[in-house]
Amino acid sequence: MRPPSPHDVPSTLALSPPSSRPNSPFLVRDDRNANSCGGIISDMANSFWRAFLICAMIVGVSLFMTICVIMALIFCSALGAILVVIGNAVLRRAGHSGYVDDKTAAAVGATGGTLATLCFGIFSFIFSKPRINGLSFEEPPVLIQLVSSVVIGTLSGTFGSLVLLHGHVDLHGLDVLHATRAGAVGGAIMTLAALVVIPIIFATFVCILPMMVITLMASIEWLQAKYDEDWDAFSSRPIQLPVDDVEGGVEPHNATATDRLGQNAILSA
């Protein structure tokens, strides 16, 4: 037997299958490239998602602010129109000349209502004192709050008539003076109505609310008493029951519901 030579290969090494993934630097580099590409794609997706959220937030806030501004403009225009229409109608019914129909008066008040409210807001802001934190302001004096409707109505008639007359709109003979008077009268009527109606509504609410509570409690008590009375009448009424309902005997035909409940309790015990 010859000695083994260095060129001989052991059987275990000869029979071992080749590796399915040889240790190649090219494959390692491909894995690193794939991981880096996946990371770049993930970062890009996160960046796009953040940009989308920021854009959506900006659009949502802008839409909300736009809606708030539009609602404020509509409210200011409606307030000016109401004040001028009220004053114009009162002065026209009183027999004064120079006043027109309600449609023209509403157009004048709606046109000048926004500018009038803006001017009054600036005027009130001047007389408002900032608080300690500097982020909020105290309410203007009570006198300014009371004359707010008069000032807004007067300015609504003035600004509205000036703008429409400057734009060569036919106001059917309504000039700046009569429009101003109509707005002032409408504001005064609205202020008096608020001073009279608001306390009446508050007093009525304060007086009616306890009465409503008392009436509700009395109704609940009456319903409870009626229910108890009906239940007592039902429980004491004779009931015709089948004979087979009681085990080991025949139940009397004149048994009441109360007796029936007592027998069932005895039987169950």
Would you report the number of β strands? 0
What's the mean pLDDT score?
75
Characterize the biggest β-sheet. none
Q: Rounded to an integer, what's the Rg over CA atoms?
A: 45 Å
Series of H and E elements:
HHHHHHH
The helix content is over 70%
In short:
The protein is mainly alpha-helical. The chain has helices spanning 11-15, 25-93, 102-126, 142-146, 148-166, 176-235, 257-268.
Give the topology, please.
Layout: H1 11-15, H2 25-93, H3 102-126, H4 142-146, H5 148-166, H6 176-235, H7 257-268
Helix pairs in contact: 2-3, 2-5, 2-6, 3-5, 5-6
Verbal overview:
- With 269 residues, the protein is an all-alpha fold.
- The protein has seven helices and no strands.
Relevant terms:
269 residues
